[in-house]
Design a protein that fits this description.
alpha/beta, 7-stranded mixed β-sheet, about 45% helix, binds adenosine-5'-triphosphate, binds magnesium ion
């Protein structure tokens, strides 16, 4: 016969194929708003939900009411009319029970008077669509992560620019706080100081989040860091009715760590605990413990509170970037993300445990270097030695107000201080006078800190040992490599004036 059927093929071979095919097969007429069916195989009935005993004429997949989107029918029909065929054309059709499925249609069509004669093969691709949609969602999330990373970059740039003005605000507030002030003024000053500290914290968070913070590690006594951190919160805790119970082990081994970063972690844990407790019952009891585990050679620090605790499903999310349950403006949701990053960068870890209603407990674990604190500490800081009369410091800083604040503080501490507004002036000063310590900004107009360093290295190498650089965000820049290479002391902006004095004392010691 004309179809080319082999003589040995049984008469009913095509019928068997039609009946058994795992694709929907359709032959019929499709008009502008109606359709008629000549043949529909069992698989077609299956995917669209028609029972076996429904008459073929009733199985009408291309009726207008089967289309989820009526416009999709119009364009399907006009494509068939125009091209005489469609390949893998996607349609969203309604099954008999009303649920929607994705159907891929390959068909050819011949024009009749006012309709089309259509032969179509139809496939249910709902599952495949679902997978594709999931893949798209994953892709979307990935690009979201990229966007966040880009945002992080931008923010860290902004953060960097904020460092100088912030350093100035903090330094001036710290200076003013040392004066005799009336109550109202001290309260206002406190507010300025707290707000600036908070802004500085956000800046630090953003920088760490963008992995941009330069780290300088030394051997650190974790108990010291904990006490320094508590000192920062002492006032707030007192007025807010937060009681602290300290159980810090004496003679803990030191850890090799960046004390600023560890303080950042602890500060966030302490503030989180305060928020949780005060939010829940307007008062709180915070336990701070530290201990050494010799088997693991680790130092552990625990901050626990008697707040509301953290439900298990929330625990899974608290280390995620930007996860916060705090009101807009109260939390950025970066605190624990940063803590996690810092713990891991130090070869340690941070973990949480909490019984709902029974408070939360965070444990920071850091590998110890195996060295022990020399003397059991009685006071947290050694009494500052007198600065010998005639000890001379040079403060090189292009931010006028900041430079003045640093200079004045050093004067108060007993230094004789000269000021230079940039590297050029600094060079001129060092040529006429001997300095015991030089505090120098890194980024300055004309001659910057690095050039100044090079000049000293060439003309008075001993002086390079007396340099303390102060700088904004350095990571990823030339400055980072420079500080690494030069081995100079340095402080990140914004800094505390007392840290400048402490470092200056160390340099002259
Ligand atoms: N001690 C705690 N008790 C109860 N919930 C806590 C505690 N510590 C953290 N959380 C929960 O974890 C969330 C995330 O904490 P995280 O420190 O990362 O961000 P944040 O404190 O909300 O904002 P940020 O630290 O950036 O200012 C908090 O919003 C809070 O829901
Ligand atoms: Mg926090």
């Amino acid at each position: 016969m004309a179809s080319g059927r082999h003589p040995s093929l049984p008469d009913d071979a095509f019928f068997h194929l039609f009946e058994g095919l795992r694709e929907g097969v359709y032959i019929g007429l499709i008009g502008a708003d109606s359709s008629a069916t000549f043949a529909a195989n069992p698989h077609l009935r299956l995917i669209l939900g028609w029972a076996e005993d429904v008459a073929t004429s009733e199985v009408r997949p291309f009726e207008a009411d089967r289309f989820v989107d009526p416009i999709a029918r119009d364009s399907f029909v006009s494509l068939l009319k125009r091209d005489g065929a469609v390949h893998d054309h996607l349609l969203r059709l309604r099954r008999v029970d009303g649920t929607a499925v994705w159907i891929e249609v390959t068909a050819r069509a011949g024009p009749l008077a006012d309709s089309l004669r259509v032969e179509a093969v139809m496939r249910d691709v709902t599952e495949r669509k679902k997978l594709e949609d999931q893949a798209r969602e994953v892709f979307h999330q990935l690009s979201q992560a990229e966007k966040l990373a880009a945002l992080g970059q931008t923010m860290s740039g902004v953060a960097h620019e904020l460092n100088n003005p912030l350093a100035t605000v903090l330094a001036c507030a710290e200076r003013l706080a040392g004066r005799q002030l009336d109550d109202q003024t001290s309260r206002d000053l406190d507010a300025i100081h707290n707000a600036a500290e908070r802004a500085a914290r956000i800046v630090r968070n953003l920088q760490t989040f963008a992995r941009k913070r330069h780290t300088t590690r030394t051997m650190v006594d974790i108990n010291h860091v904990m006490r320094d951190t508590l000192a920062l919160r002492a006032y707030e805790q007192q007025v807010a009715n937060v009681v602290i119970v300290e159980a810090l082990a004496s003679a803990l081994p030191q850890v090799f760590a960046d004390p600023h970063q560890i303080q950042q972690v602890l500060l966030n844990l302490v503030i989180n605990a305060e928020h949780a407790m005060l939010g829940a019952h307007g008062r709180g009891l915070m336990m701070l413990r530290s201990w050494h585990e010799p088997e693991r050679d680790a130092v552990l620090l625990e901050v626990s509170d008697d707040g509301p605790g953290i439900p298990e499903d929330v625990q899974a999310k608290i280390f995620d970037p930007f996860f916060t349950t705090k009101a807009v403006g109260k939390g950025t949701g970066l605190g624990l993300t940063v803590a996690y990053a810092i713990a891991h960068e130090h070869g340690g870890r941070i973990s949480v445990s909490s019984v709902p209603g029974g408070g939360a407990s965070f444990v920071l674990e850091l590998p110890s270097g195996g060295t022990h604190v020399r003397a059991p500490e009685s006071s947290s800081a050694p009494p500052a030695a007198e600065v010998p009369v005639g000890t001379r410091a040079l403060v090189v800083e292009d931010e006028q107000a900041l430079g003045e604040a640093v200079a004045d503080t050093l004067r108060d501490a007993g230094f004789e201080v000269d000021r230079a507004a940039d590297g050029e002036e600094a060079i001129a000063h060092t040529q006429t006078r001997a300095y015991d310590v030089i505090i120098c900004d890194l980024k300055m107009p004309r001659v910057d800190g690095m050039e100044f360093f090079d000049h000293l290295a060439a003309t008075a190498p001993a002086l390079t040992k007396r340099l303390i650089f102060v700088t904004g965000d350095v990571a990823g820049t030339e400055a980072e490599a420079f500080l690494e290479r030069s081995g100079c002391h340095w402080l990140a902006k914004p800094f505390r004036l007392r840290d400048v004095v402490r470092l200056a004392r160390e340099v002259i010691a």
